[in-house]
Amino acid sequence: MPPPVPKASEPLAAPAGAVAGKVPAPAEPRSAIQKALDKLGLRRDIDLALHLPLRYEDETRIVMLKDARDGDMVQIEGHVTNSEISFRPRRQLRVTIDDGSDTCVLRFINFYPSHQKTMSVGALIRVRGEIRGGFVGREMVHPSFKLAGGELPGALTPVYSTVAGLPQAYLRKAVLGGLGRADLSETIPAPFLSKKLPQTLLSLRQALQFLHHPTPDVALSVFEDRSHPAWQRLKAEELLAQQLSQLQARRVRAAMRAPPLLNSGLQNTQCTLHDQLLERLPFRLTAAQQRVGAEIAADLNKNIPMHRLLQGDVGSGKTVVAALAAARCMDAGWQCALMAPTEILAEQHFRKLITWLEPLGVKTAWLTGSQKAKERREALAMIASGEAALVVGTHAVIQDKVIFKNLALAIIDEQHRFGVAQRLALRSKMGDGGQEPHLLMMTATPIPRTLAMSYYADLDVSTIDELPPGRTPIVTKVVNDARRDEIVERIRAQVAEGRQVYWVCPLIEESESIDLVNATQTHEVLAATLPDALVGLLHSRMPVAEKKAVMSLFNEGLMAVLVSTTVIEVGVDVPNASLMVIEHAERFGLSQLHQLRGRVGRGAAASACVLLYSTGDAPRLGETARARLKAMVETNDGFEIARRDLEIRGPGEFLGARQSGAPLLRFADLQTDTDWLEWARALAPQMLDQHADLARRHILRWLGGKAEFLKA
Ligand code: ADP
Ligand code: MG
């Protein structure tokens, strides 16, 4: 057990070890405690009951000092033989206790008069802390303490994660109360229970009772590896809740209506937009693009709203698939909206789509936050009248003022960059008669299978698993920052061949200005080194117009080198760019690195990605940073990258970055609990069909209000 770290901020009047006795009256008004509980998400009794300990303290035994070894976390009981305030090395309270076998000094750097009172000479006290061999004998620093007496608890003492303003003692009491009051009656129908949970037939109540207050004979390792039947029960319950709610969301959606996008409005003689677009493309679709196109078309033909994720590695050609879907929608006489997370990306789409579709007579409206009032008014009018069949833009597309005439298909690029609320807002744009638009979401970060089965079970997934032909694989090199000069030479060579280069600098939120300096300096150095070439700078603080100007110079091939912060992270498409340099690559996440690398290798020329790293003051890179860079060198495959990313980061963070809105698993682990996942997947439909009431109770118990989010 790790020793408790004494924190100066923790009120010592309620030491972590004060359990056996009564909980002191709250020092703060009740509302402050309530607020702290709220912050932890502990609103209902069941939430409290499911707030499991981080670890346990063993207060069931009193150890003799002579038997305690250095570093042990122990509880001892003895008489105070001395108590004094000393001033060396700094002001502190030093209390000596004697338990008959040995003595020990308790040191308190922060203390109140009450400390001295409780631990006055002659008092018999019970103390808990880490024993150390001090300079002048054995000692404990900031142990918890109280007057001796009172029975020893029969169970281990739980230690919960908490927040400022909520001392352990209060939280323990709250959890105990919640555990007592919560409805923990069985929700898993008996036949399903016995089928899969033979050695796990603890009831939820038994499992929670045990996990909050385990008996001291249990090996601590069973808590750590979560193998105990009590843990198994919780994992099963949690995964079942997740599967039930996803399946329920899917069924709710299946009961909703969307306009089927059959191109019934067209005469046979008339060639559809879709077919014309296909004909005019300068390339043939890959087999994968054709396959996903057909999957999407099948969805669009139905009167149930599509809810499909199109995943494909960077550069796999998702945009054209989206354009073809949009064309189908317009062929059926409905409007389509495409939303991208950044203005640069949205504009790329806009330009591409108008070059493809405008010659075919499609009117497209453009909406962003930065546009002029007049321009926007015109766009809004075109959208409301239906004159614009296609709307492209940023978040501006989902603002209240945007009223569509007849929206039927919403396409979201880089869906993980949008929050749940935004997806919901887009869906509410349909307007009339309780219908919903079809939803197509695109992502370049493929979702590993286990996650797709759990968090995204309510999503149909289409995958582009092949790159357009003629691409040469990108060669990735990891280079120490000390060899920067060589890289600059390499850039010179690329530029001399008429190729274009990206140089990306990291952006850490806390020190945006430092990074700006970093990017600016790099820009200056490169500009000075390459006097004949145009070297541009792009960062998030620049005015939009300036950003656009830089981007279009680069797009048109007039700018040879683009130094930028991560604003170019997604979607930028300049096939002539063949070298990507990423500075401080050790600071980037794996999927971000992969996304950035995907900006090159889009044309026929051999492309390279250089990952410049710096170890700072450390002798070498940290382990996870090394694992990330290694993965980058070893594979170009987005699926493999995603798998390794999940491995390195764990699903919590992996999903966190996506703002998925899906409640994360707290107890189950998708990597190791695949058995339970399969069990829950099989059980969920039967339970919804045959035991709807139990299913509802189960979802409510585990997800409460959060289940709402799954509908997005
Ligand atoms: P992403 O999937 O990363 O969004 P894009 O849609 O931007 O990829 O496509 C990358 C590049 O590949 C674009 O220049 C696009 O025009 C081109 N492209 C797409 N499909 C094909 C294809 N079947 N054959 C050749 N080039 C293609
Ligand atoms: Mg894209």
Report on this structure.
The chain has 4 domains: 81 residues, no CATH class; 87 residues, OB fold (Dihydrolipoamide Acetyltransferase, E2P) (Beta Barrel), CATH 2.40.50; 192 residues, P-loop containing nucleotide triphosphate hydrolases (Rossmann fold, 3-Layer(aba) Sandwich); 162 residues, P-loop containing nucleotide triphosphate hydrolases (Rossmann fold), CATH 3.40.50.300. Helices cover 38% and strands 17% of the residues. The chain has 23 helices and 22 strands. Strands 6-7-4-3-2-5-8 form a 7-stranded mixed beta sheet, with no helix packed on it. The chain has a 7-stranded parallel beta sheet with strand order 12-13-11-14-15-10-16, sandwiched between helices. A hairpin with a 5-residue loop joins strand 2 and strand 3. The longest helix has 26 residues. It is globular and about 100 Å long. The protein starts with 29 loop residues before the first helix and ends in a 9-residue tail after the last helix. Bound molecules: adenosine-5'-diphosphate and magnesium ion. The site of magnesium ion (MG) has 4 residues, from helix 11. The site of adenosine-5'-diphosphate has 19 residues, from helix 11.
